[in-house]
Amino acid sequence: MSANTQTGSEPAIETQDLVRRFGDFTAVDRINLRVAAGSFFGFLGPNGAGKSTTIKMLTGLLAPTSGRVRVLGHDLAAEPLEVKRRIGVVPEDLSLFERLTGAEMLSFTGRMYNLAREDTSARSRELLELMELADEPRKLVVEYSHGMKKKLALACALIHRPEILFLDEPFEGVDAIASRTLKDLLSRLTARGLTVFLTSHVLEIVERLCTDIAVISEGRLVAAGPLAELRRGISVEGQESRGPLSLEDYFIKVVGGTRDADADALHWLT
Ligand SMILES: Nc1ncnc2c1ncn2[C@@H]1O[C@H](COP(=O)(O)OP(=O)(O)OP(=O)(O)O)[C@@H](O)[C@H]1O
Ligand SMILES: [Mg+2]
After folding, report:
1. What average pLDDT does range 76-93 have in this prediction?
2. What is the pTM assigned to this prediction?
3. Helix, strand or coil for residue 139?
4. pLDDT in tens, 134-146
5. Fewer CB under 10 Å: which end of the chain, C or N?
6. What is the model's pLDDT at position 254?
């Protein structure tokens, strides 16, 4: 990680009127995001809100319909390789090669990033140990469990020491021990200047880890800012000064309500 990502005013990620349409449907609607270097940024929103579509556009996996993305001071459309060299991504579908072992997948990834062979093998060994994937070296990715694949994808995203780590639902399907390891690791890395951009539905984890959040709903940004300020600046209707809200209360408030089950709904089931 270079020290210059921690200082100066250049944000790590910046978007300008970012739009993605699929046919007539607008999945991401004129989003303006600014993520400060070194922040731990949580990107929240209900299912189908546009989080994964946005992450794909921020990492060069999906072209925007319109708008601009700047990452680490570079225009992503103009200099995709310069950006991709310096970021790590765990996408929604993980994008692993199923017929490789974990070590082979890491070795391939290290070579793709042009790392020296010795660095790749030393880092690969350490990452496999850390993720508790070292015990079955002959196992192919296709034989991995969902959580194991997720941990391997994370190891691949870290092997080249990225300056920004993009994680789409990193805690989903991961056991409590691995989740603790991951939380500790991410906290250590952000303390050293890494920027983390993650999506998660696990609000307790977001609340504990993130310094800043943005909330997207139906493709539009409905809130963004430092987590503590956002919570102070909003109160639940009719309950004015009840102190800071939990992130769950805040989230439900800004995405528009609780969708309380109507008493007759599912009467055939209950
Ligand atoms: N390739 C595609 N073609 C058509 N529609 C798409 C495509 N990808 C995403 N969408 C639509 O765009 C919207 C946003 O999807 P996206 O995957 O970004 O949501 P999300 O916020 O990541 O949701 P989740 O929390 O369920 O992962 C959804 O309505 C989805 O159906
Ligand atoms: Mg998603």
Report:
1. 95
2. 0.91
3. coil
4. 999 999 999 999 9
5. C
6. 87
Q: How confident is the model at residue 2 (pLDDT cuts 50, 70, 90)?
A: very low
Q: How far is the CA of 47 from the centre of ligand 2 (A)?
A: 7
The structural architecture, per CATH, of the domain 3-254 is 3-Layer(aba) Sandwich (3.40)
Question: Which residues are CB-neighbours of 30 under 8 A, at least 6 positions away?
Answer: 17, 18, 19, 67, 220
Q: State whether the beta carbon of 217 lies less than 6 angstroms from ligand 1.
A: no
Q: Across residues 169-179, what is the average pLDDT?
A: 89
Residue having the nearest C-alpha atom to atom 12 of ligand 1: 27
> 239 with 49: CB under 8 angstroms?
no
Q: Which of 18, 19, 22, 90 to mutate to test the pocket of ligand 1 (most atoms within 8 A of CB)?
A: 22
- What are the domain boundaries of the chain? 3-254
What are the phi and psi torsion angles at 30 (to 5°)?
50, 60
Among 19, 31, 51, 62, which residue has the most ligand 1 atoms within 8 Å of its CB, making it the best to mutate?
Answer: 51
Query: pLDDT (tens digit, 9 = 90+) per residue, 26-70?
Result: 999 999 999 999 999 999 999 999 999 999 999 999 999 999 999
| C-beta 24 within 6 A of ligand 1 | no
